[in-house]
């Protein structure tokens, strides 16, 4: 009998997060204040984020304790299984061994609760009563709704109107967990009202939703803070529970990955799996390859520039040193909504610049095709985002077959696609299109960075 | 640290199914041929079902080996976790300990694949190339689509048209796994065409969809068979992996249930959890209570009669000895589509008659309220069907609080509700209604049994 799943006990769940900054040869440059262009201070950030999260954002400590209250909620779904994809291997007739870390088993169906829970916890500890945030496709909004509920914090989610109308299941999930979900632009904020005055039928954007959520937090400093589901250092930090578990599970499987793969939007699921493996490499251990997979329609890692740029469209956030396509780059309306972000986080950008991370861009017709193959062979319907990691794993496995050599591949199944099945319908009906920006489009967008 | 989840290793997964018939003081009466009213023979059934499944349907062996090929696919999601519902306990402020078996973690999101996989396997072994079946809300259809894919068997699902139109996600799930899904009535069968001729806008019923699926199988005896997701003995048999795992996991938790609870449609998730515990009682062990929970709108166990009755509306199936509301009883259109069935399986009916099983009926406003509480405290959004088991567990826990005594409760979380979130929307908006049939309605329906 070939073991299929490698499972840890609750006692083997990591008790600390791993902060890769401690091991980086070149630490990321500091974020800059949007107006003064000086490094932002803790004080400036504290109007927006909880204190403890700012500490973590700036920390250079190698390990940070996970509070017992957070671990208790993690145990609802963690440790997650590491799975040998024997069905996929067989279908590809490959000598490669393929493993995946299954983060789709969380209540919200993705890796997002790994950071939603500590973010809600630290805000709760500080006496914050309300969290505001934005969401595109809704994975992050539902994760923070779930997390807020556990600490009795009210959650207000500004959801891009086009998704709010098209994806009612994610909204219903948030409401079932007790969160309030508003279509953005809304009439609750000045930025929302301005957008509606300009165009009453405005379908919204992630950048505008961020503006609404931040504005709401700034207006209620006594009891409200803002939170974000990716990009930032503390978010990546929280996700390292994924990779730490996977390191232990690969040891159980008596295997060592040659390549570790994650899909890439803001960087959190990728970093969560990859950083604990990259630690071994940074500290002189095995030469594991680490691959970030982005959609061909939003190719910041492979075709963007390394610049200081804003995190949002309107330019309210600090300037972050990152690979970017320009903060007002408008990615095509692909199905992997979680990967439609113009920039990468500061840590991953530095690691890419320094050659510790590889990147590749794959069009969505190829990724969804790989997703269907995975659904048929491994039984789990993957999120459109996660199909990017699967497609890259398939490429690696087919290359191993061509070269007739063994290879051990590990990828992150960041979420399931049960609420995203329309993407598969489009693929199956042949209606799915690919979009690739031209060099001129990217250049123009980069030129707009102030 | 209180342990939250009790997990078995793959090697601890049961290697046999448990057949409770071997331990019943009164075995169930035989099914009768719909025309001759004589006990049906293996030969008569073999036009519809695979041979090995007919053997299991009639078996009195206590244990039946699970083929290695089936175990291999079970290992995609099994063993499933047993979870201590600490969050729910805290919210109810109860001295009771509440555990649940989490069957919602399967690829299709419910317990249904436990029987879909062996049914597909035995048909495949017999050289069958195509399986037909019906589905209401779609849980069963998606499970058999998943299972058929693994053995290269084509799957044709006849889905009640009103659900086909209203629940596109389940249909898309089936199609993603490669099954064909037709709205019923369809123009592919004589029974479908007859219904459409009578009413071109006919919205269908489960009974009609059964007729279409059975007809399709009967017309292609060379390579096609029919399959069913509940009610029958062999289906309940396959589900006993649930309870066997739970028996071992309760031992890990050093606990013994006082009451074991499952929601009840045709009986498969209920029997799957309860029978291995009931075995202890039937063989002189602990006096565990076993409770089947049905919707107040479809109260066959609490208000039906013990009769020979048909499994379908049209009267094509064998007559089964069961608690029934009459085979053309029309249950209200409640959200727990999987519980809208007029009769109970033969084994459970006999056990209820003999006092080994208790039954209770709960209205859906109470069950969905319990479902929301569960989603908020335990993080998992339960299927509307499963909320019936949760509501009964909540009643037991509140009774324990009133009486100030300890009690150990175990229930089956048969599925998740991610694709059924509209039920929660209706509940949250106050639009959800309860329906209870009158005594006269039930009497009239029972009088129509020939």
From TrEMBL, chains A, B:
Keywords: Amino-acid biosynthesis, Aromatic amino acid biosynthesis, Lyase, Pyridoxal phosphate, Tryptophan biosynthesis. The keyword 4Fe-4S does not apply. PANTHER family: TRYPTOPHAN SYNTHASE (PTHR48077:SF6), TRYPTOPHAN SYNTHASE-RELATED (PTHR48077). Residues 77-415 form the Tryptophan synthase beta chain-like PALP domain. It is an enzyme of class 4 (lyase). The modification N6-(pyridoxal phosphate)lysine is found at residue 112. The gene is trpB. It catalyses: (1S,2R)-1-C-(indol-3-yl)glycerol 3-phosphate + L-serine = D-glyceraldehyde 3-phosphate + L-tryptophan + H2O. Pathway: Amino-acid biosynthesis; L-tryptophan biosynthesis; L-tryptophan from chorismate: step 5/5. This is Tryptophan synthase beta chain. Tetramer of two alpha and two beta chains. The beta subunit is responsible for the synthesis of L-tryptophan from indole and L-serine. InterPro entries: Trp_synth_b-like, Trp_synth_b_CS, Trp_synth_beta, Trp_synth_beta/beta-like, TrpB-like_PALP, TrpB-like_PALP_sf. Belongs to the TrpB family. Its cofactor is pyridoxal 5'-phosphate. Its EC number is 4.2.1.20. One of its GO terms (molecular function) is pyridoxal phosphate binding. Pfam families: PALP (PF00291). GO terms for cellular component: cytoplasm.
């Amino acid at each position: 009998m070939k073991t299929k799943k490698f499972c840890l006990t609750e006692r083997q769940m990591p008790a600390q997060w791993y902060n890769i900054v401690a091991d980086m040869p070149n630490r990321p440059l500091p974020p800059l204040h949007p107006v003064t262009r000086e490094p932002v201070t803790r004080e400036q950030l504290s109007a927006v984020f909880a204190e403890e999260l700012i500490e973590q954002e700036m920390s250079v400590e190698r390990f940070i304790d996970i509070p017992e209250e957070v671990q208790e909620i993690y145990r609802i779904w963690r440790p997650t299984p590491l799975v040998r994809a024997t069905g996929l291997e067989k279908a590809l007739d490959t000598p490669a061994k393929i493993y995946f870390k299954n983060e789709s088993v969380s209540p919200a169906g993705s890796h997002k609760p790994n950071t939603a829970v500590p973010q809600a916890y630290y805000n709760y500890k500080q006496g914050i009563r309300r969290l505001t945030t934005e969401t595109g496709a809704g994975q992050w909004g539902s994760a923070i709704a779930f997390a807020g509920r556990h600490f009795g914090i009210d959650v207000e989610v500004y959801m891009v109107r086009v998704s709010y109308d098209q994806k009612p299941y994610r909204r219903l999930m948030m409401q079932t967990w007790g969160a309030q979900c508003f279509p953005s632009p809304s009439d609750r904020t000045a930025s929302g009202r301005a957008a509606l005055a300009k165009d009453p039928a405005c379908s919204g954007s992630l950048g505008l939703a961020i503006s609404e959520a931040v504005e709401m937090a700034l207006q209620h400093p006594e009891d409200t803070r803002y939170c974000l589901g990716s990009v930032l250092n503390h978010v990546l930090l929280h996700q390292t529970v994924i990779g730490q578990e996977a390191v232990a599970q690969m040891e159980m499987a008596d295997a060592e990955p040659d390549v570790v793969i994650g899909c890439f939007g803001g960087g959190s699921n990728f970093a969560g799996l990859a950083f604990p493996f990259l630690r071994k490499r940074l500290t002189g251990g095995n030469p594991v390859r680490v691959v970030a997979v982005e959609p061909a329609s939003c190719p910041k890692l492979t075709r963007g520039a390394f610049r200081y740029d804003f995190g949002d469209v309107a330019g309210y956030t600090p300037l972050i040193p990152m690979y970017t396509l320009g903060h007002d780059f408008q990615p095509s309306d692909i199905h992997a909504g979680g990967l439609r972000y113009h920039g990468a986080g500061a840590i991953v950008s530095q690691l890419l610049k320094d050659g510790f991370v590889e990147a590749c861009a794959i069009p969505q017709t190829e990724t969804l095709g790989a997703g269907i193959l995975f659904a048929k062979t491994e039984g789990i319907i993957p999120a459109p985002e996660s199909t990017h990691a699967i497609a890259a794993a398939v490429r690696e496995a087919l290359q191993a077959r061509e070269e007739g050599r063994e290879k051990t591949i590990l990828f992150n199944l960041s979420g399931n696609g049960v609420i995203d099945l329309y993407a598969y319908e489009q693929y199956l009906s042949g209606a799915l299109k690919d979009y690739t920006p031209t060099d001129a489009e990217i250049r123009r967008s980069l030129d707009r960075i102030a």
